[in-house]
Amino acid sequence: MRISSNYLQLINRILTEEPGKPAGGSKKASAGGEDRKELSRLITGLQQEMDRIEGEGATERSARLESLAEQIEQGRYDVDSKKLAEAMLKFINNSQPL
User: Which residues have a Cβ under 8 Å from the Cβ of 21 and sit 6 or more positions away?
Assistant: First the structure.
């Protein structure tokens, strides 16, 4: 599952905004600060993991594209018409409103 960078930007903006004064005493303010630190740490870890996963997927995809380009250039790439037809029908069925 991919989390949109828009959501991460929103979370980071919320974390960096100055919080309003809490209704309670300093205990609530300190607890809120700890919550923000923990959330910030989790977001940083999540972003690093997403970057790692995207990097792995990019190299695999790049290798696959190079292989396909080579097959096409050498005339060895054959289109499986049955798979192509199934993909087209699936696309058509998914794009029509219910």
Answer: 29
